[in-house]
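Exercise 7. Given the encoded structure of a 229-residue chain, write a plausible sequence.
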């Protein structure tokens, strides 16, 4: 499933420029031209990321951000704020408003894409959570960054760890290669070469799980699934 980004900007040229570049990265974009419209769109469906202009007609970006943070359903929604006003930056990313990041206008679209990727990556760990996971004889403790098989510690690379974390957290469900690339590597869109990256890492991960390698099942043409008993 593509990453859903809501772009809130009242200037049509800037709005379509942002949409163009984010869609090229594989993100699915929705747009809003005012603060009120933004809140309505978020209420209809919470996006994965909000790109929010500060200067908007009516309710400004600061107020939109504050309202979203005050609502438990959207308190953790990643928000990148766009602002031409350097003097509000401290407030934008501070506790008062609580945006995850900001970009000064004018900004380069390359920079926006990089920030979007970084903010989404940071937002991801909370999806898998920090609680210890166990499937069969495989245990993973995210907070201590420890993996054991039959009680014996296994050395994993950071990517292997994140991959196993994603699979265990979704035990019993199929995860597509694209999903894993997005989750573990931060790629918005996968091509064939990148898909093979997942396969290579899964192969190495399986080898390290010894007798429990069967926990990672290949779902042909789709991806991988962590097998429970
Ligand atoms: Ca504006």
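Solution.
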């Amino acid at each position: 499933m593509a990453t859903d980004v809501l772009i809130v900007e009242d200037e049509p040229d800037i709005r379509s420029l942002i949409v163009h570049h984010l869609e090229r990265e594989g993100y699915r974009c929705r747009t809003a031209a005012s603060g009120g419209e933004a809140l309505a769109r978020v209420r209809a469906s919470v996006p994965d990321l909000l790109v929010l202009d500060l200067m908007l007609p009516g309710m400004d970006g600061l107020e939109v951000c504050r309202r979203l943070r005050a609502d438990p359903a959207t308190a953790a929604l990643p928000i990148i704020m766009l602002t031409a006003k350097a003097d509000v930056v401290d407030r934008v990313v501070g506790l008062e408003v609580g945006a995850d990041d900001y970009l000064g206008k004018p900004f380069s679209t390359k920079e926006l894409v990089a920030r979007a990727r970084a903010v989404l990556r940071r937002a991801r760990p909370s999806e898998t959570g920090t609680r210890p996971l166990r499937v069969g004889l495989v245990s993973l403790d995210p907070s201590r960054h420890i993996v054991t098989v039959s009680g014996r510690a296994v050395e994993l690379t950071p990517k292997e760890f994140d991959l196993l974390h994603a699979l265990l957290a979704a035990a019993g469900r199929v995860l597509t290669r694209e999903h894993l690339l997005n989750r573990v590597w931060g790629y918005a869109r996968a091509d064939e070469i990148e898909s093979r990256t997942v396969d290579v890492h899964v192969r190495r991960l399986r080898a390290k799980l010894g007798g429990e390698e069967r926990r990672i099942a290949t779902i042909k043409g789709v991806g991988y699934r962590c097998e429970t008993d």
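Remark. The chain has two domains: 4-123, 133-226. Students should compare their own answers with the one above.
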